[in-house]
Amino acid sequence: MRKEYDFSSGKRGAVIPSPGKTRITIMLDDDVIEHFRHVAEEEGTGYQTKINSVLREAMGRGKKKSPEVPVTASVLRRILREELREES
User: How much is the pLDDT for 43?
Assistant: First the structure.
C-alpha cells in the first residue's frame, strides 16, 4: 500500500451509476424492515430488492382494476326490485 493517496480528483457517491434507480431516504417502521430482511434472507435476495418487488406488485394490482361499467336501466330496475323486496 502507498503511504499517500491523491483524492483531489475523486468524486463522492456511487462509482457506477444504477440506471433506472434513484436513491431516496424513506422512514419505515422497524418491524417492517425486519420482516423484509427475514424474507429476503430466506429467498437469498436483498431486503431492498424484496421491498421493491412488493411495491411493484402493488402498482400492478392498481392497474388491473376493471373499468367501471355504467348502470343500465335494466340493472337499476333489478336492484330496486331486490331492495323493495327486502323492505317488505
Answer: 94
d(CA 50, CA 77): 48
Residues 6+ apart with CB under 8 A from 64: none
Residues with Cβ within 8 Å of residue 71, at least 6 apart in sequence = 79
In this structure, CATH architecture of domain 22-64: Orthogonal Bundle (1.10)
Per the confidence metrics, is the pTM higher than 0.85? no
C-alpha 77/C-alpha 71 separation (Å) is: 10
Q: Which residues contact 51 (CB under 8 A, 6 or more apart)?
A: 36
